Amino acid sequence: MTFTTHFSHCSTSCNDNSKLFSSSSRSSPAIHYRFSGSRRLCRYRINSANGNPLKALPSLPISESAADYDYDDNVETGDSHSTLSITVVGASGDLAKKKIFPALFALYYEDWLPQNFRVFGYARTKMTDEELRNMISRTLTCRVDKREDCEQKMNNFLGRCFYQAGQYSSEEHFAELDTKLKEKEGGKSSNRLFYLSIPPNIFVDVVRCASLRASSATGWTRVIVEKPFGRDSESSAELTKCLKQYLTEEQIFRIDHYLGKELVENLSVLRFSNRVFEPLWSRDYIRNVQLIFSEDFGTEGRGGYFDNYGIIRDIMQNHLLQILTLFAMETPVSLDAEDIRNEKVKVLRSMKTLQLEDVTLGQYKGFSKGGKLYPGYTDDPTVPKDSITPTFAAAALFINNARWDGVPFLMKAGKALHTKRAEIRVQFRHVPGNLYKRNFGTDLDKATNELVLRVQPDEAIYLKINNKVPGLGMRLDRSDLNLLYKARYPREIPDAYERLLLDAIEGERRLFIRSDELDAAWALFSPMLKELEEKRIVPELYPYGSRGPVGAHYLAAKHDVRWGDLSGDDS
Amino acid sequence: MASLSSAQYRSYSSNSFPPASSNGHRHNHRLLSFSSPIPRRSPPVVLCLQQSQGNSRPNVVLMEDGAVATPVNPAQKKEETVKKLEDGLLSSSGISTEELKEAAGFDVKENESSVSITVVGASGDLAKKKIFPALFALYYEGCLPKHFTVFGYARSKMTDAELRDMVSKTLTCRIDQRENCGEKIDQFLKRCFYHSGQYDSQEHFAALDKKLKEHEGGRESNRLFYLSIPPNIFIDAVKCASSSASAASGWTRVIVEKPFGRDSESSAALTKALKQYLTEDQIFRIDHYLGKELVENLSVLRFSNLIFEPLWSRQYIRNVQLIFSEDFGTEGRGGYFDNYGIIRDIMQNHLLQILALFAMETPVSLDAEDIRNEKVKVLRSMRTLRLEDVVIGQYKSHTRGGVTHPGYTDDKTVPKDSVTPTFAAAALFIDNPRWDGVPFLMKAGKALHSKGAEIRVQFRHVPGNLYNRNIGTDLDQATNELVIRVQPDEAIYLKINNKVPGLGMRLDRSNLNLLYSTRYSKEIPDAYERLLLDAIEGERRLFIRSDELDAAWSLFTPVLKELEEKRTIPEYYPYGSRGPVGAHYLAARYKVRWGDLGIEQ
């Protein structure tokens, strides 16, 4: 099989989206592979942008691979590859600078990007290519564990970055972008990825313009959108409807960057590839599940966007709920995106709509500690003085299916708390008829096993077990079976954005949110959110840097739960 | 890292000095049944009272993270104990408040009970290396009662001073508590005495009795004999001790060490002979593996963690491996060993005991009889070991880096044509509903490449694993494994499949870890300390009952006889190697792969 025929086969299959997934990658006994199917085949014997063999290829029986095709790194010379153009719409924004460009560079540095890729910045600001490169270069860093040639690679990368100024709602300007893209693509088959890093009110405009004027004629066109995906069921449905006027479901990549976190990815691996966990994964053994997110800083002058949404929309309805569904879903038929998302939707649809009485709200107030004054939420100049937007919320959710009936899933999310973390805590039931009961004192629930997946910072998995304190007596204590990622894996863990960008490039949709999933998620939260706003329910105030409002404890107590992160034997 | 235990501590008074009964066992039950608030010896004993030193410093456990796990206020607790003891005991046994107070550690009156520990065979190796140091450690930790005396008894002529000299050479202090060590050693040695005599002489034991009485000074006397002597003189010593040196007013207990016979018949004969002079309750058959920290912890892990018990059956466990290895040979002391071989020396007792603890059903309580009942049930459900399920080996000499390590038969104390196995592997099965079909593999050997004892539990593979293609062709290589490392470097770890961080989807096996040395800074007590203390307190949980011993022998005796009748030649393996390859084939027959010889351990 010659390369060209192989390639042409691919380029058709790439447009053919998900149908090919399973057949193409299932057959390969890969040690090191990524999930996606069709894209992989296409880049199969291609060098990466660095001239190294492209990563993540399945070990199909063509071993000569990259070495036989000595492509040079000159993207301007016309060879027969397809090209990849990534357009960051809203290139001068914060997210673009802090996350998207660095993630793209990291992918480039690690040889994950194909040979012919280019990055375009698009925004309203007038800027030259040079200015963009300058801006980007300030935030690029190299992976700590592989510093060689960093400087050179940065320069190579920046050489592939270009800028186009334009209005977000101007088809004309997008047409200009298209011209520029075509010019760089040099007539090759082109794949285009648009990353919308812009405020939600201009989503649809940009999608319209990009779709109508700057879609790829020969390859795929995909659009990554960031939260917020609406404020409630209606606005979300409206947004989806508008997006679908210009894009098919397969083209929309709704990003939830929590799904790109290492330990969230690992959640399924833990469950489904370890015999010791799956039998325990049900109401028979699990007493409750806690999903905890906390930040140790407030809005710090950037409350404008936040105040319109609040912590429930900002963190719970998306990030925590997504983790919950991954945690609770039934075993999918396969690891293919559609299979996984089908299972997630099933969980969401089995859930009880959140009730107002199962929610506690909080808002941080000013607090001075050690002579330093920490401002309250409403002290933020970008926040209305009378705002009752919650900066903290705790909620109890239930999944009314055979596996989880009656098990409380508690969520807690807050800003300006005493620590910064995101974790999943699984508290097991107590041992029935425990022989060691008298060694535990009166509260058996304090002595239960607990599995903790710490998503950030300091990724770790640990299982709290009861253990005999060594010595002549018989004293028990809870110690941890530990896996601290830092100790086991010295390699830097990639940023969530890297994984998600790469997945979008490869057409892997597993970690992106499907429209029906989004609908189901909103349906759970919308009624309660509306009620909150209609009744203008005042949040409980808590001091900046504290452990949050005590209401969270009462909510937990109501469902016989004790927060694992505030129990004293865990920091 | 708060400790979960309620404030309980070791108190002998609760059940180990039954004032008017030498039948400690029955007494135990009576005591325990009516007074639940009394801190019980089994299991929740924790801290030793510093009685003998009049020192009330509690035994403090330091956690590595700086937390101090000592929930008791000793003085206050003592009072409570006395109060409870009064409440509990006065009604039934009519002894005075004073006596109770003394028993709980108060210096009220001189008329208290005493404990005399007689080490028969005091000049032997075990006595020097283990028994005296363990007694000292117990004394150092304040675990011995106020009035205790240690007697050495052996044939050699020796003065008290000479004995003390000999003992003192092996005493060390716990590394985490070195203060006053010298002083405490001196105090301890002052309580050590020597009496020389023949092991089969009633007269000499009567002389010992006289001496013991002197030291007991009219107090109630409790006597513990530790028989650290060759098996052929067990009975003689028991006879003499029992008839001429039993305690008149307290209990008399006898600790016996392995070997408990060489097969069913000789073991039964030994038991029968012992029982001529002792009741079952007086016999403490020691298996020092049962005193190891992680063997003790095995039951805690199983029965106090919800996440383990559901997995503890044939449904989830594919096989269990019990592995013992030493990295040295007989080194000139093969005389005893050659008569027994590794199967009797390690497997039939240590490994089988661990197996029984591992596999038993949940006992009714943690009381000794309940646990031992369950262990016997396991042994009786087991299939008698067959010759084809055993592989034996013997080490041969090996030269490495210019050093020649001698083979087993190069040992001068071993016959040149000895076929005694120094290595054995065996597959055992428990034919009960929980374990039907699950191979329990044992492996024990001398002169191997490493030194250790561990339990490995290999779980089944995940049915319909979604990640199958990430694992390669052998699904069994990617199963979970729980490893309990008994020695050295006590640890518990659970091998899990985990995603290697990064953009790909690569799985690897990593460990959920608990390494004792990082979590618990305190030195872990030697098994002998625990067992001696248990014997003093009348706690029989870790000692082997006669019916247990019978059941254990009946599993191994046929195969041992067959091996000897057929003079089966062991497979030779080089000194310092990983043992004979036959062990792999035995494992392979039952679809098992040894967990300790994989690339990753």
From TrEMBL, chain A:
Single GO biological process annotation from the record: pentose-phosphate shunt, oxidative branch
GO molecular function terms attached to this record: glucose-6-phosphate dehydrogenase activity; NADP binding
Database matches in PROSITE patterns: G6P_DEHYDROGENASE (PS00069)
Keyword Lipid metabolism set for record: no
Superkingdom: Eukaryota
GO cellular component: chloroplast stroma
Glucose-6-phosphate dehydrogenase NAD-binding domain sequence ranges: 88-266
Keywords: Carbohydrate metabolism, Glucose metabolism, NADP, Oxidoreductase
PANTHER family: GLUCOSE-6-PHOSPHATE 1-DEHYDROGENASE 1, CHLOROPLASTIC, GLUCOSE-6-PHOSPHATE 1-DEHYDROGENASE G6PD
Official protein name in the record: Glucose-6-phosphate 1-dehydrogenase
Source species of the chain: Linum tenue
UniProtKB/TrEMBL annotation, chain B:
The protein's annotated pathway: Carbohydrate degradation; pentose phosphate pathway; D-ribulose 5-phosphate from D-glucose 6-phosphate (oxidative stage): step 1/3
PANTHER family (UniProt xref): GLUCOSE-6-PHOSPHATE 1-DEHYDROGENASE 2, CHLOROPLASTIC (PTHR23429:SF11), GLUCOSE-6-PHOSPHATE 1-DEHYDROGENASE G6PD (PTHR23429)
Identification of the protein by name: Glucose-6-phosphate 1-dehydrogenase
Role, per record: Catalyzes the rate-limiting step of the oxidative pentose-phosphate pathway, which represents a route for the dissimilation of carbohydrates besides glycolysis.
Family of this protein: Belongs to the glucose-6-phosphate dehydrogenase family.
Domain Glucose-6-phosphate dehydrogenase C-terminal: 300-594
Domain Glucose-6-phosphate dehydrogenase NAD-binding: 119-297
GO cellular component, one term: chloroplast stroma
Swiss-Prot/TrEMBL catalytic activity: D-glucose 6-phosphate + NADP(+) = 6-phospho-D-glucono-1,5-lactone + NADPH + H(+)
Species, as recorded: Linum tenue
EC number: 1.1.1.49
A matching Pfam family: G6PD_C
UniProt key word RNA-binding: no
Lineage of the organism: Eukaryota, Viridiplantae, Streptophyta, Embryophyta, Tracheophyta
SUPFAM superfamilies according to UniProt: Glyceraldehyde-3-phosphate dehydrogenase-like, C-terminal domain (SSF55347), NAD(P)-binding Rossmann-fold domains (SSF51735)
